[in-house]
Amino acid sequence: MLYIDIHTHKIKCAQNPSLSVLNVFPADISSVSKSKFVTLGIHPWYISEAEANLKTLSEYVFLPNVIAVGETGLDKLRPDFEKQIDVFRAHIRIAQQVHKPLIIHCVRAYQDVTELLLSEKFELPVIFHWFSGSPQLAKQLTDKGWFLSFGQSLFDLESKTVRAFKAVPLEFIFFETDDSDYEISEIYEQAAFLRNCTAENLSDSISKNFQLFFQR
Q1: Mapping DSSP to helix (H, G, I), strand (E, B) and coil, where does residue 75 land?
Q2: How far apart are CA 105 and CA 72, in angstroms?
Q3: Mean pLDDT throughout 108-113?
Q4: Which of 168, 179, 183, 216 has the smallest set of CB atoms within 10 Å of its CB?
């Protein structure tokens, strides 16, 4: 059984049969070589050096182990929202140029993100990482063919995220540890408990999603 951690900020030793996708910021470009699977992008919290970091992103995004662009996106709890939009739009266009998917960070800006993706005619795969929205929002996103990644919030049994997770079809789901202290195996076990299935069943579904999403 394979555990796929679609988004982590931590370089990890292999535990169980696992596959981790390391998120790297352009300012820490040396970390690109530390993982077989990497995503590269400017987080909307760290856009102060956007011009230089976009240049770095454009130079390194062609590397074969950089399998997606991001995390990138919009966060309405942070300042410089208009600049965030400009930086996110640049990521969308870079992803289109290199024909790679997007990993999206989104806080209270789902409508804005949706409008940008549609206006830029982005037709490659998309993952909204660390999804924590309602079942209604989850349906709106998956109806567009976009994927959702779930993590630590699955342990909050009273949350709207858990209700959303139970309703989302498995073909639109990934799991992640992000920067939490959970192991990816623990995320899978909790998800299996919530869906009343086995971790093995989830592993099979997520492995198929990974192959489809990255065409690997």
Answers
A1: strand
A2: 6
A3: 98
A4: 216
Question: Which tokens go with 141?
Answer: 């996103």
* CA distance linking residue 133 with residue 107, whole number of Å: 9
Is the domain defined by 3-214 classed in CATH 3.20.20.140? yes
User: Residue 66, SS3?
Assistant: strand
Alpha-carbon distance of 72 to 92, in angstroms, equals 9
Query: For position 161, what pLDDT does the model report?
Result: 97
Determine the Cα–Cα distance for residues 21 and 5; give it in Å rounded to an integer. Answer: 6
CA torsion angle 3 4 9 10 (round to 10): 30
The pLDDT of residue 13 is above 80: no
Residue 43, both tokens? 């987080």
Q: Omega into 123 within 30° of 0, i.e. cis?
A: no
Burial of 174 (0-12, 13-18, 19+ CB in 10 A): buried
The pLDDT-based confidence of 14 (bands split at 50, 70, 90) is: low
160: helix, strand or coil: helix
Confidence of residue 155 (pLDDT cuts 50, 70, 90): very high
